[in-house]
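Sample entry (259 residues):
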Amino acid sequence: MSSTMGVMGDVSSSENEYWATIKPPSSGAGSATVMIKADGVSLNTSLIITFADPFTDMEGGSGGCAAEGNVRVLVVDESGNPIPDAYVMIGDSEVSDIYITSYNKAPDGSNVGRTDADGFVEFHDLGVNLNGPLTITAAADSRQYLTFIDIDASDFIIPLAPIYPIFETGILYGDIYLPETNDIEVGIMLRDMSINSLTALNLNTFVSEFGCYPLDIPVYGNINIALPGNIYIPKQCALGSLFCLLTLPEHKYISGHIE
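Predicted structure, serialized as tokens:
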């Protein structure tokens, strides 16, 4: 066998079947004519193979030829750097023996693979199970997984965004535990409104912006608690019966906003 483009590999055979692998040319797209000789005689039949430019957009996507038994996947991070040992699966679930990888053999190729040091993994099938359209999922440690659905292509670049850890964005200083008090009088103040506004009240909009309410609590000392600005608390005793152990100061109010 010989080809007008690309590099022809060694010819293998099994009974009356012969095959070889052609590596595409470095120049990219083009068509190659494969010619066959048997016992020094050229056969009248020739094969035309079309090469496509590889897909190179590191932001992700697909390209190349239609799948037709050959798929290459590159997994990269958000900066376009390859991710080695990433997990890649073709299809909706793992199957260990779906692809035929040798002529005249039973299927023995898995639809799951791991990327190499350069971030690539390849899948090959001499049968029909790797024909497009395909669904391909990629995943890696500490990365969000990404799935391409129903795409008929042979060249994929799949970018995986990082999973950002949950961390504190602020610290609230104050007392967590307060003494159990008597029931106290509290009012919520709203601005003047129409009947239509009153009948369409949204409870989530009842309170206004929060502010500090200073208290002097025995044992606990001086503390501040957060209260909505439109909460009114009259001065009153909050703890004790015969003797008042905790006096609440008046908390004046501002009108709340109603949407």
